[in-house]
Design brief:
Layout lengths: L5 H23 L4 H13 L8 H29 L12 H8 L4
Length: about 110
Amino acid sequence: MMAVSLAQMMSTAERELGAFLLAVSEIAGTEQVEEAGALWIQMLEEADQFNDNPQHIFRQTTIKALAEIVGRHRAETSRCQLERRQPCRRSLTGLTVLFSGKLTMA
């Protein structure tokens, strides 16, 4: 177990969430940022064992939120295609690639 101060945890969480929201904004548009932020916080609230490794928890939170967003997008795209319409939202194809460059822990 590593000793991490509350200030360090908050700083790490802020960087992780900021990188996540920036990537969502760049790929899905600013209209998706608020929903993505709320989802990230919800996933964080569901996380286990903050004391073990907060950096790991914050990264897992980002991955879970990303998976949820991509899953929702795929479901919406499938629904729209079944209705023979164009996809309802911009594509999230590049989201995971963008995250690999944006999510860095200092």
